[in-house]
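Follow-up to my earlier ticket, as requested here are the two runs.
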Amino acid sequence: MPANKVFRDRLSSFDLKVDLAFDRLRGRRSYDLLFYGASAVGDHGILWVLVSVVRGVRPEHRRRAKRTIIATGIESVLVNLLFKSLFRRHRPEHNGPRPLPLRIPRTSSFPSGHTTAAFCAAALLAENDPLWPAYYVMASVVAASRIYVRIHHPSDVLAGIAVGTALGHIGRRISPLERDS
């Protein structure tokens, strides 16, 4: 059996197992509100712009806020125009009703843009910030939401975590913070 087929089969098996685990949560009103809401505020990096603006109110955090907003804009262009065009993966099939409204992107499923934006922003905001766990919790909820609402395969989300974290750390090296607390 060719290695490529073995890899695809294992990836499909992984995606299916994780999706089935999420089935235990789906259909419960509290989880629907949490994950559909997180998916909505994750659209176009809205959550990360809002968090950056709130953090940037204090003068000592303005550079961090500007850096995050600019970097997530660059991340969006890289992921949505470059990375996704290389893969052309179909999104998971979902034939049932959705409990809440949801925008369904037309781009490739791989990698998850919501997740790359979330982890890029979390990596940038977290640098030398005592609130760093909150950024990663929010990023994780946004990432999980994409699996929950069946817009992404779990492997799309894992790739998004890796790409977003890497882009965030590259952003930290390109634009280091100076005495920003």
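Run two:
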Amino acid sequence: MRSVGIICEYNPFHNGHARQLRLAREAVGEDCALVCLMSGNYVQRGAPAIFPKLLRAEAALRCGADLVLELPLTAALSSAEGFAAGGVRILSALGCGRLCFGMESEDSNLIMSTAKANLDPAFDALLRAELESGCSYPAARQRVLERLAGADAHVGPPSILQNPNDILAVEYCKAILRQNSPMRPLPIRRTGSYHADALDPEAPSASALRAVLEGCPDASAWFAAVPSCLHDLYESAPIHSWQAGERAVLAVLRSLPDAAFERLPFGSEGLWSKFMKNCRRCASTKEIVEATKSKRYTRARIQRMLLCAFLGLRTEDLASPAPYARILGFNEVGRTLLRDMKSRFPLVNAGERPARSAYFELECRAANLYALFSEAGPRAGGEEEAQRVIRLSNG
């Protein structure tokens, strides 16, 4: 059976995501299977997911996905490069023939050529030189591309790496090339603005949706931006936010020893020390981020660093590929697909306890802490072990 992989977060699932699933199936054929590898209870920007992972998995299944797997936490909280590499590694191993992703650029060929330029040894040397001048990684990469674009007409313009979906698209293509993956890119152009403040029902930005959710307790205020088949799912869904769990985060950060800060991901070049001092003196997580970020170290990097500190994730944790991926949900097509996939890559059901796995302990700790971000108040622990796979009929 032909399968298309999608690396996603669905935070939350909206009409734009439904459009991508529909167009992916139209491009490959109605008989293909759509496999979504979705971040769990934490997302790549360094925050708790607004809705729990099983609810988001069910939303995807109701709207066209056939199988939803969990992107391991260690990949979900990595940089864009690590996020893409972790997803490509798993979907390639599972035998997906295509990787579908969104992009803002109208020219998919420039996405691949830019990815190739990023993998050129000359790119690395130029990038190191720019970083040593003190600029941030995004700015350094921008300058290098400007130089390469001037020398090679086949290299995409620097503007390709200014838009979030294009940045991830390049990283997906880099991962495919670097891993020598047999998957072929299936780009779909995203409509609307990724950072739009106003809620566009047909092509909503996730940030606009989250803003409405966090500012208005009436769920119907944003129902125009999500498929109607999800209204009952979202209506009473528990909302999670950083603000709801901030005191718990601050308590952990203020009690961490120096050695724990030193082993944090993203803390190289002494950044961990500056971050540690701010964690011990600042009165809010926002203040910590503002006091630590700089021209070179972006807000997103500090936010991920902060979340890793709270969850107890070390540099070596993010560097080690997870030993398995979790099955969150499937329909009848997905169930058929799993029979073959389980022989290709270790897959574990939601709630299942693997034998002698340190990664499982990490999952449980992360789930127990996620329950503290509920706006309705902290929930009891033990949620990870109590999870059950969602099974939907194709009808």
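The only thing I checked on run two: The mean pLDDT is 90. Let me know what else you need.
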